[in-house]
Amino acid sequence: MVYDYLIVGAGFAGCVTAERLASSGKKVLLIDKRPHIGGNAFDEFDQYGILIHKYGPHIFHTNSEQIFKYLSKFTEWHHYEHRVLAKVDDQLLPIPINLDTINRLYHLDLDEESLKDFYEKVREPREFIRTSEDVVLNTVGRDLYEKFYRGYTRKQWGMDPSELSASVTARIPVRTNRDDRYFTDTYQVMPLHGYAKMFKKMIDLPNIELKLETDFEAIKDYVQASHIIYTGPIDTYFNYRFGKLPYRSLRFEHEHDDSIQQCQPTGTVNYPNDFDFTRITEFKHLTGQTHSGTSIVREYPQSEGDPYYPVPRSENEFLYKKYKSLAEEEKNVTFVGRLAQYRYYNMDQVVGAALSVVEKLLEAGSV
Asked: Domain UDP-galactopyranose mutase C-terminal spans what residues (predicted)?
């Protein structure tokens, strides 16, 4: 069989590019080394009948009407605004930090204007913002940094915030109002019947052939394809020529409790200072599912295992750019996605990148 495109990886990047190209009349072979589609966003019903995210919570949010409308072709939506609490000083407090967080933590009665003054008094100004530690200290000062950020970051990344680029903690806003939503995007929704069903509908096209439990290295010399779209780790593609790019991985501990309908007040509770895990997510909050029991997942960051998060440090970015230079020299190969572009993308950003890649390929008439 001769294909126009071989797409490596059936997560967001792979499925979106496969759908767009197949819908344009291209013959596509989509492969994934796992036994399922959807990548890390894969979800399924556990043995108790609760829809869970196998690889930790994936909450969809975007400000892009284009991306929302595109995905809406493949799913109905459940409206969901994610809220997170952090266990600090034996209290469950809103994170991102807001007016209620400060008032409850310090037993104060501030309003929005006086909270701005509070932040100004406690912050440790930094002339140059280079690290994640700089970001937080410059914004909210030492005590809030120690209580909410430092321990969580050290668990998540295996290093101190002072060793990580500013982008890590810059993702988390600090608020002066009472808005306790984790995200403020225009569109905050979850696929009504789950991500896996959405992906299945997306790639249910006669021009797409799907092969699961298939490794790229094992078939690349046998498949006849005019162009490759690669969504896996870029250093793996080049056989680690310059050394391995650092990633953080996760271990997931799933648990079910039949005795209660709900075990925590919000979808996710962070544990910045206690335990080896970073957070617990209770899935029924996310999906809106009704069930007599409940299922949760604890996340344990680790250095070994499947790559989840590119580690944002300047030396890692330098190493990535060496691989990017090799990628730009590759003929008829396109790299897209979190692992292929070594970027801490949100899901909507991956969709946007994939749509952009296909648009350029079709405009160029590469196949």
From this structure: 147-344
Per-residue tokens: 237:
């593609």
| Structure confidence at residue 186 (pLDDT) | 98
Both 159 and 232 in a single domain? no
15 and 158 in one domain?
A: no
Its pTM stands at 0.95
Instruction: Write out residues in the chain with pLDDT < 50, as ranges.
Output: none
CB atoms within 10 A of CB 130: 12
How many domains does the chain fold into?
A: 2
Range of the domain at 337: 2-37+203-246+311-364
Q: Are 190 and 82 in contact (CB under 8 A)?
A: no
What phi and psi, each to the nearest 5 degrees, are found at residue 169? -85, -15
Report the side by side order of strands in the sheet with 60-62: 60-62, 187-191, 77-79
pLDDT value at position 366? 60
Residues 109 and 163 occupy one common structural domain: yes
| CA-to-CA dists, residue 92 to 85, 95, 148, 154, 187, angstroms | 6, 9, 11, 20, 27
The predicted pLDDT at position 303 comes to 94
Is 90 domain-assigned?
A: no
Residues 336 and 240 in one domain: yes
With a CB cutoff of 8 Å and minimum separation 6, the contacts of 57 are 267, 268, 281, 283, 286, 297
Residue ending a domain, choose from 147, 170, 193: 170
